[in-house]
Amino acid sequence: MSSETMENSGTSLVKGSKRQRLWKKVKYQLVEYHMLPGYLRDNEYIVGHYRSEWPLKQVLLSIFSIHNETLNVWTHLIGFFLFLSLTIYTAMKIPKVVDLHTLHFPDVLKKADLHKLQEELLTSLPSLPNLPDLHRLREELKTWHILELFYNCLPERFSHANHTDVCVLMGTGRQCERSMKEDVANIIAPLMLTPITRWPFFAFLGGAMFCLLASSTCHLLSCHSERVSYIMLRLDYAGIAALISTSFYPPVYYSFMCNPFFCNLYMGFITLLGITTIMVSLLPVFQTPGFRSIRASLFFGMGLSGVLPIMHKLVMFWDQPEALHTTGYEILMGALYGIGALVYATRIPERWMPGKFDIAGHSHQLFHVLVVAGAYTHYRAGLVYLKWRDLEGC
Ligand SMILES: [Zn+2]
């Protein structure tokens, strides 16, 4: 009997809108683990608060109600919006700094040299060494956004001589004259090298957004029917494979961009491995419990293969602080994903107190938060790579 027929017969039996609402409430109440159909049984330590085979409308609306998947849906939905914001921020903010490079610059200053820039500024602004905030300026000279800072501020020296130093130090002064700004940009911008391509970084951001949105959708809709659950699980696997594959792109590309052989080798390898993992997880036979460990090993192997290019990077650039800095982030990311996988596999803490963590605090929610934290760590590492390559080139 379809849900509509059941509702119609319900309306004819009980009259009045109040009784009708009560009927619906009873029909779509949360159930316990032992009442679930086989395909929805996954974790016996989560005892209650399950949605089971609800109509699509009720399933979609359940994003705003409390059940044992609410936090699983929201942790990755919030993660998705976090990465969407980071993508928009990166696309808008970071090219703004390097757009200045498209101007014409004197050949004399082709090579990036921040120490030289600092020296030049100190000699061209003789009043600066006497200021108490000189140390802060020196620190700011080392930061990535230095070009933007000076682009905005330095010309005020020419138009409002008395306020120059304050303007430089405080990072304010937005009303600089256009021609003056361009003059200064022409002097300073050549000290930075031409920016390198951003596509590997955006590929990672795209992979992260796809993974988080696919996971969130999977947790919301899987309880609808066996068919939807089957499709959603595959979408979830594809999302994980996409996140792992695209996570390789920034470190591999920016580490080996000056060495095309290794760059192509690693990029090709991880892309092939990612596509293979997605194809393999689409095969119906891989859904069977017997293949669960093989699927898990495939994802684990993908992640583990990242150790090789990272070690290679360390050997090649052992004397560069950026290589150590990014490796630090990569170790942190590995630890966050590793703890996430451990929590996921051991089903801690709900196995200690079954039923106590149904709504909040069970392992899958902790796993989701750790995945978002790991991906964010990787985003920060990506910014270090961009800064490094923008300044150093090959
Ligand atoms: Zn999940």
What is the terminal separation in angstroms?
68 Å
In the CATH scheme, what's the topology name of the largest domain?
Answer: Rhopdopsin 7-helix transmembrane proteins
- The CATH architecture category of the largest domain equals Up-down Bundle
Which descriptor suits the 3D outline?
elongated
* Low-confidence sequence ranges: 1-7, 9-14, 96-112, 154-177
Q: How much of the polypeptide forms β-strand, as a percent range?
A: under 5%
N-to-C SSE string, H for helix and E for strand: HHHHHHHHHHHHHHHHH
The name of the CATH superfamily of the largest domain reads Rhodopsin 7-helix transmembrane proteins
The class by helix and strand makeup works out as mainly alpha
Give the count of helical stretches.
17
Number of domains: 3
| Distinct compounds present | zinc ion
The CATH top-level class label of the largest domain: Mainly Alpha
Rg value = 28 Å
What portion of residues is helical? 55-70%
Q: Kindly report the average pLDDT value.
A: 78
| Major beta sheet summary | none
By DSSP, the count of extended strands is 0
Protein name: Heptahelical transmembrane protein 4 isoform X1
Family: Belongs to the ADIPOR family.
Keywords: Membrane, Transmembrane, Transmembrane helix
Transmembrane segments: 71-92, 201-223, 235-253, 265-286, 298-315, 327-346
